[in-house]
Design goal:
- The complex is a heterodimer of chains A (about 260) and B (about 250).
- The relative contact order of chain A is 0.17.
- With about 260 residues, chain A is mostly helical.
- Chain A contains ten helices and no strands.
- Chain B has about 250 residues and is an alpha/beta fold.
- Chains A and B meet through helix 7 and helix 8 of A and helix 2, strand 6, helix 3 and helix 5 of B.
């Protein structure tokens, strides 16, 4: 392969960390930590019902509905949040003042209000005007919140693409929006994929907050079981382990995806 | 089609960034088929002026004409004019997510709506012309600087421009790669392409340039054919500068 020129060997990376630690190949220690936690949690989930079937076997058969609901809330929220985030990111770099202002205010407002308060607010306050089903309220609130965070990631990702890319696209006669769609955004996706993966994991964990709206997610199901049977410690042990396994699984997936993207470059 | 208009006419061009005057009352004319080289110390405004010719920068005052189109007019169709003005950058600016062929075909496909087959045939022919027939499916990262710059030239040519702008096309290259890029540029010049080039490549100037423009401090100091400007500069500032680089 030909020698790589200094201008071509750019690799942009933005670091945002509030999801799970995403292991990389070169970080041997993290990788081991991931193995210990992941396989440890799975081992416990298998062993506990074997060693003490009561109550663990009952807990484990009670939870799958909740896991399903957690996934539904997470996937719906991330899909909508990605759409909102993309437009927010574009709005944040827009040259149209009013669009820029709206996007910026939105991000500021969301970042200043705890997610739990946003959940209550959207459910109860907006519930005064229109009756919204719990799941809709939950997904709306998560979208509203994460759309702002993802917007910042998209903004950073777009701005990480060198200015020369837009100029080269304009120079061959493309419009700004053509250049954005064909040249800038395809490159942005690569840059934002790791932080977006991270936000997905963070969102998955934050989705436990929707149990407060009586959406029957994993945590809610655990609470229901515990309050009926008084096996609080045992139930929350299982709930925590299930969250851990899911989160670690996805963090691994994100790192594999990232690795593949890097290899293709 | 008025035949006796110059291809590019820069009239009293001024460009300032805040209080800094980058280009001050510059006048340059490039006839059809002419190769004009702009030289001058760094910060003399030559790149800025070149970037004004396809409106990557907007003039503060003055006019730029491409044939009968006034680029500086309020209602000017900038995108159409840009299609006719190819630009080659110092840092190549190839699209890293596209192959060499993808880089060359994306302009015609997106802007001119050329069908894929046709665009690819044309793209292959252009890559062949710049000596990269075997690199059609290579990605920019797999190419050397010289090869990348040649792809960039092919990308600009794909829009079938009337004039090509080169913004220090060889200054980011290692010495052994400069020649391959200059050879392509010489080939273009021989084929009668109108070119406006910011560069200090004296060999290229002597071989291909019809005129050399010396700029300093945002002003055009002296314009003359290369043999005159290099061997017998009229003004002291030109003499001083040439003493530095020759």
């Amino acid at each position: 392969m030909a020698p790589i020129d200094k201008f071509s060997s750019r690799k942009t990376r933005i670091e945002v960390s509030d999801g799970a630690l995403i292991p990389e190949k070169e970080q041997r220690a993290t990788f081991t930590a991931w193995r210990i936690s992941f396989f440890g949690a799975i081992a416990l989930l298998v062993l506990l019902p074997l060693i003490s079937p009561e109550p663990y076997r009952r807990i484990i058969t009670f939870l799958p509905d909740g896991i399903m609901m957690t996934f539904i809330v997470t996937v719906l929220s991330i899909v909508f949040a990605l759409i909102v985030g993309l437009f927010t990111g574009l709005g944040r770099i827009s040259r149209i003042k009013i669009v820029n202002r709206i996007a910026t205010v939105y991000v500021e407002v969301v970042r200043g209000i705890p997610l739990l308060v946003q959940l209550f607010y959207i459910y109860y306050a907006l519930g005064k005007i229109v009756r919204v089903p719990r799941l809709v309220a939950a997904v709306t609130a998560m979208t509203f919140c994460y759309g702002a965070y993802l917007g910042e990631i998209f903004r950073a990702g777009i701005q990480a693409i060198p200015k020369g890319q837009m100029e080269a696209a304009l120079a061959i006669g493309m419009s700004r929006s053509q250049a954005m769609r064909r040249i800038i955004l395809p490159q942005t996706i690569r840059v934002v994929l790791p932080p977006v993966g991270n936000e997905f994991i963070a969102l998955l964990k934050d989705s436990s907050l929707v149990s407060i709206l009586a959406v029957a997610d994993l945590l809610r199901r655990g609470r229901e079981f515990a309050s009926k049977t008084f096996y609080y410690f045992e139930t929350y042990t299982v709930v925590a382990l299930v969250y851990l396994v899911i989160t670690l699984f996805f963090s691994k997936l994100v790192s594999l995806m990232e690795e593949r993207l890097n290899r293709r470059e | 089609m008025s035949s006796n208009r110059p291809r590019v006419k820069i009239v009293d061009a001024c460009k300032s960034f805040g209080k800094i005057e980058a280009v001050n009352n510059a006048n340059i004319t490039v006839e059809k088929g002419e190769v004009v080289l702009i030289i001058g110390p760094s910060g003399s405004g030559k790149s800025t002026l070149l970037r004004c010719v396809n409106r990557l920068e907007k003039l503060t005052s003055g006019e730029i004409w491409i044939d009968e189109d006034r680029l500086t007019a309020h209602h000017a169709d900038i995108r159409r004019i840009r299609e006719e003005v190819g630009m080659v950058f110092q840092s190549f600016n190839l699209f890293p997510h596209l192959s060499a062929l993808g880089n060359v075909t994306i302009g015609p496909r997106i802007v001119k709506k050329t069908p894929l087959n046709e665009a690819e045939d044309q793209g292959r022919a252009l890559l062949d012309r710049v000596g990269l027939a075997d690199k059609v499916s290579a990605y920019p990262e797999q190419l050397s600087g010289g090869q990348q710059q040649r792809v960039a030239i092919a990308r600009a040519l794909a829009m079938n421009p009337k004039v090509m702008l080169f913004d220090e096309p060889t200054s980011a290259l290692d010495p052994e790669m400069i020649k391959e890029v200059l050879d392509v540029m010489l080939l273009l010049a021989k084929d009668g392409m109108t070119m406006l080039v910011v560069s200090h490549e004296m060999g290229f100037a002597k071989a291909a340039a019809h005129k050399v423009v010396f700029m300093d401090n945002g002003e055009v100091i002296e314009t003359a054919p290369p043999e005159v400007l290099f061997n017998n500069p009229q003004l002291e500032r030109t003499q001083k500068f040439l003493a530095h680089i020759l």
